Amino acid sequence: MPRRVINRRNHSALGRYVDESPEGTEFRRVAKRVLDLCKQSTPLTLMVTSAVRGEGKTTVAANLAIALAGDKRRRVLLVDADLRRPRLHTLFGFTRRNGLGDVLRNDLKVRAVYKSSTMENLTVITGGRFNKSPSKLFNNSRWRELLAELRADFDVIVFDFPPTIPVDDPESVGKEMDGVLFVFLSGKTPREVGQRAVSILKSAQANVLGVIVNDLSEVLPYYYRHKYYKYYNTKPEVTFNSRQET
Ligand SMILES: Nc1ncnc2c1ncn2[C@@H]1O[C@H](COP(=O)(O)OP(=O)(O)OP(=O)(O)O)[C@@H](O)[C@H]1O
Ligand SMILES: [Mg+2]
User: Fold this and answer.
1) Closest Cα to residue 14, out of 6, 22, 23, 25?
2) Alpha helices, H only, 38-112
3) Ligand 2 centre from 112 Cα, in Å?
4) Which listed residue, 25, 73, 154, 168, has the most CB atoms within 10 A of its CB?
5) Number of domains making up the chain
6) Residues near ion ligand 2 (Cβ under 5 Å)
7) pTM of the model
8) 139: domain range?
9) Is 58 part of any domain?
10) Given ligand 1 and candidates 17, 58, 182, 214, which is best to mutate, with the most ligand atoms within 8 Å of its CB?
């Protein structure tokens, strides 16, 4: 019987996360690959970004964090660092209030904004209060102090960042992360746009671990559902594949 890890009433992709689904399998693969690439060293900070809006960053960040939290010994934190368009809270049914923005503005202490999920080893920080210029918040000393505080409390921290081309937060913070995961929406985002974004991150000395190709629905589900796993009859809505950046 597949196990649902987040509240079933939540109709988001996250709410439908099932361990034994193709998505669950793919996210566990990505999680393992990331940990291997980082030589299993913790604490580990990971940024999820993409070239442009709507490529699946938030979906990937959330599901990756869940897959990482599959190991109960690992303390995982998922942070909404998209302060312009915070959305992570909706996937968990949290309020956006009291989150990262409030800590960076020095209005709240970090432990006051930890939100517990239904997985006991998965904590979430929502976006918090909007700020007119989020870029400034990532360029001050409070951000660096915060990173150190989070690294003391968690083994893996996954940050859901804005896209790289329209916003410069990912490049200003990228090199402070242990690794950057780049989401590419298959069949939608032009390849050159993706390449341009990755080159911006690399020029900023970010450690781009790899590209997560989102939505290979025309290719992979056939193999999951019909050829190898006939018993599994749920139609996958999201499929993921990871490969090393070349
Ligand atoms: N593979 C997929 N198949 C179907 N729907 C998807 C897939 N990936 C993401 N989505 C949906 O696409 C929408 C955008 O996804 P998401 O919010 O994760 O993208 P994003 O890159 O974080 O967007 P933004 O740049 O606005 O923050 C959401 O409604 C999400 O549920
Ligand atoms: Mg998002």
Assistant:
1) 6
2) 57-68, 88-92, 100-104
3) 23
4) 154
5) 1
6) 57-58, 87
7) 0.86
8) 14-243
9) yes
10) 58
Q: Which amino acid would we find at residue 12?
A: S
Starting at the earlier edge strand, list the strands of the sheet with 122-125. Answer: 115-116, 122-125, 76-80, 156-160, 44-50, 179-185, 208-214, 240-243
Domain annotation covers residue 9? no
* Residue 181: CATH number of its domain: 3.40.50.300
Structural Rg of the chain based on CA atoms: 17
Q: Which residue, by CA, sits nearest to atom 31 of ligand 1?
A: 13
Tens place of pLDDT per residue across the chain (246 aa)? 233 334 334 444 455 566 767 788 889 999 999 999 988 788 999 999 999 999 999 999 999 999 999 999 999 999 999 999 999 999 999 999 999 999 999 999 999 999 999 899 999 999 999 777 888 889 889 999 999 999 999 999 999 999 999 999 999 999 999 999 999 998 888 999 999 999 999 999 999 999 998 875 654 444 444 444 333 333 333 333 333 333
* Residue 3 forms part of a structural domain: no
For the residues of 76-94, what is the DSSP string, one character each?
EEEEE--SSS--HHHHHT-
